[in-house]
Amino acid sequence: MKMKALVGFxxxxxxxxxxxxxxxNEGVKSVQLPCQDSRETEDTTVVWHRHGSNPSIVHKHRxxxxxxxxxxxxxxxxSMSDDAxxxxxxxxxxxxxxxxxxxxxxxxxxxxxxxLFPRYKVELQVKVPQHNSTIxxxxxxxSVQLPCQxxxxxxxxxxxxxxxxxxxxxxxHQHLDVEEPRxxxxxxxxxxxxxxxxxxxxxxxxxxxxPQLxxxxxxTCHVHNKEKEMLRVIVRLQVTERPTFPPExxxxxxxxLALAVAALGWFKTITVSSVVVxxxxxxxxxxYKTIVPLPEDVTVEWSRCAPEPMRxxxxxxxxxxxxxxxxxxxxRTKMQEEPLKTRxxxxxxREPCYRDSGTYICTVHKDRxxxxxxxxxLRVNVPQEVVKVGDRAKCVxxxxxxxxxxxxxxxxxxxxxxxxxxxxxxxxxxxQDMSEEQDDSYRGRTKRMKNPLQAxxxxxxxxxxxxxxxxxxxxxxxxxxxxxxxxxxxxKLKGFWF
Length: 498
Description:
This protein is mostly beta strands. The protein has six helices and 37 strands. The strands form nine sheets. The chain has a six-stranded mixed sheet, with no helix packed on it. It has a six-stranded mixed sheet with strand order 20-28-27-22-23-24, with no helix packed on it. Strand 10 (103-111) and strand 11 form a beta hairpin. The longest helix is centred in the middle third of the chain and has 18 residues, at 247-264. The protein is globular, with a radius of gyration of 26 Å. The chain starts with a helix and ends in a 5-residue tail after the last strand. Residues 1-17, 245-253 and 259-268 have low confidence and may be disordered.
């Protein structure tokens, strides 16, 4: 005990004196943020904070009591060991980590109202796994196959599980022994299968019948042998609408379908609508008014399936439940009062921006049975900004500022377009400038803001501009091959109309 009192310090499970970094792939069940204290901690309160969040409290623990007060983004997903204060293991377990959880976390100890120093940091990086392949298919196709093949011969002890990242429950399909129970998300009920002789041929590909727009997402094939993972294949599925035909025929088909629905009393049709707005408006409404009678105990969930799968809004038991809402939509969504009585399930999205563009699905379900669904495609157009520069200016700034949160692992690219050509002006990736990707005419002539993604300022300064620099510039923010943000700026010379 004397030695313990003399050498009282906080030790993180990391050999370096720097802040440890914990990296995991999105889709794992849980991740642990390490923090251990060798001092007496029984009368201490432990608080985990996330730097930059509001409210910042992720988890609070005191005398075997874990307080419910926390940022709702983490509600129901955090825990510490019951005997943490006795053992000194103050590590935090975070369930179902996703990319929006990436950031810097602080492990803080408080005793008698005063903070004990030093405080320690742990950086969490939740990475989106690289896709082994991307499969594209039109909605309405008879089926689609997601490939997963093994180069070794499986045994009778081999089990195969297909899951979908961001789905709850995440299980899409299980290939097990005939006598073992099977479980899957009801969204895929009676629509999935694997080859009959999969355990003989090693072909574990998933066959998905009648692919829908809401099936778009990232799927993982897990192959285990006696609890050991032998293979993991990640496949991205993109389900798109078939090319449209003349509006007159579409209207005729819609009328016929409506009559058929009324005659048959079949309510489980999925309707699709499109909404287009300009960036800068105060709000946009994703419309959904249904004729389906809805009981009070159904759940209404708005989600986004493309280009980035996200949980947008949830309503059940007469209340809005935003525990699992993606941080990107925090404090920006709202539904009508008593939506089940009015049958108006529309969602209002505040301050829409380019990244909000995508395909949204509203699903009404009860006991895993889907009552009705609606698909809304939202496009947020960004007006082109015009910047004028004098012929003797030493520099000019191409502006791009946003209040939205940008992914830390995104790539920022500035390009200039002329006729059918594009020139790479500047690239920012993994926290540094990629000068080797610049066009020669811009090398050494561009300057970005400090920490652009964190600050939300992606503006670019062009040094010693000339008439040859006049033209249209586009800044894109990309993540995993998807453009999640875009801004267009036209640079003009003062005194000229072009």
